[in-house]
Task: inverse folding
């Protein structure tokens, strides 16, 4: 019931296959009573009640046991936070994903919810982050796919928070995060961000997802422990700013305007490097990457494979996947054969499985 990463939501969105369906707003008594019969006794032995996709407009007729620890209300038609939710003192995980909420402020009215560890409000119509200062155990908050213009309210969230998902909103600035010293994942993809800032306090951060914004320059605010960075579909033209990320394992920079590979030689922990859809004509500065497994370089301007074994010599035995399709080099009739000879453990070349 946890939040989804930028990549998964964006892929689903682009494919037109997002998990959900359009339903009417009218519900009658018979339907509500039917739901009561359907869900009675539905709690499993682990304290989970899954009411996904029941088209519920209210919880009044739904028997909710006070022993519940996890309640999934995904894909219903709930438009308010009902008092019955405050009568679940053992609840740790609550998902209201894909409902009709325009305001979730009433969550703060119910002390019975203050013990929540995961709160998913993904894909509603929220314009503000609800007041969560009393939710001192909250570890995951998902407010992606809403109508937020700012992160106002996040400054009151407990330092216990480990995962924050706020993708696909209209957020214009990174702010209010200074107290989140235990945050491991920050997802702000598909917003209106232009500047990377105010992340100095995120000293535990490992995963930073900022794809589909309007960022022109990388500023990691001194963060050294990042394992994964995504800045796909921004406005980058250079690769400066990653030099200090010596433990970085995955770097996604596709769909930018980068014209030169640089400042990569010290990223010796890198396992995945995605530079697809840029303006690159040379592979360089990656000779020392001895852990590289996936190299995505499709849709660039690489003219030939001359010297590719030397350019990727550190990864000669570790490289298992390489994408070079839609480069001029891909027209070489021995293209696949040359790559297989250079990289003996290669398993996939473009979309072709070769082992």
Result:
């Amino acid at each position: 019931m946890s939040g989804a990463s930028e990549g998964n939501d964006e892929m689903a969105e682009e494919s037109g296959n997002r998990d959900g369906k359009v339903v009417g707003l009218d519900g009658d008594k018979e339907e509500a009573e039917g739901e009561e019969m359907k869900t009675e006794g539905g709690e499993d032995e682990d304290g989970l009640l899954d009411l996904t996709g029941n088209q519920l407009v209210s919880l009044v007729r739904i028997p909710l046991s006070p022993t519940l620890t996890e309640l999934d209300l995904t894909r219903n038609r709930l438009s308010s936070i009902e008092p019955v939710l405050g009568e679940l003192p053992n609840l740790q995980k609550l998902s209201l994903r894909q409902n009709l909420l325009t305001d979730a402020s009433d969550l703060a009215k119910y002390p019975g919810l203050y013990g929540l560890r995961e709160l998913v409000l993904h894909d509603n119509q929220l314009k503000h982050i609800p007041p969560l200062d009393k939710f001192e155990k909250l570890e995951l908050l998902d407010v992606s796919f809403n109508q937020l213009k700012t992160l106002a309210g996040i400054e009151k969230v407990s330092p216990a928070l480990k995962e924050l998902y706020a993708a696909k909103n209209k957020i214009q600035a990174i702010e209010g995060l200074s107290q989140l010293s235990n945050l491991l994942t920050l997802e702000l993809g598909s917003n209106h961000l232009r500047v990377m800032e105010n992340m100095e306090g995120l000293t535990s951060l490992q995963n930073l997802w900022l794809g589909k914004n309007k960022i022109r320059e990388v500023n990691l605010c001194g963060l050294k422990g990042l394992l994964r960075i995504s800045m796909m579909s921004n406005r980058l033209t250079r690769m400066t700013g990653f030099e200090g990320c010596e433990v970085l394992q995955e770097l996604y920079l596709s769909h930018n305007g980068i014209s030169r590979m640089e400042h990569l030689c010290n990223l010796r922990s890198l396992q995945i490097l995605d530079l697809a859809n840029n303006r690159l004509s040379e592979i360089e500065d990656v000779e020392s990457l001895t852990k590289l497994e996936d190299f995505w370089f499709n849709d660039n301007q690489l003219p030939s494979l001359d010297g590719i074994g030397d350019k990727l010599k550190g990864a000669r035995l570790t490289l298992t996947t390489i994408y070079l399709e839609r480069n001029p080099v891909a027209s070489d009739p021995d293209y696949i054969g040359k790559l297989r000879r250079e990289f003996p453990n290669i398993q996939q070349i473009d979309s072709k499985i070769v082992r």
Q: What stands out?
A: Residues 2-41 have pLDDT under 50 and may be disordered. The helical segments are 6-15, 29-39, 308-311, 335-342.
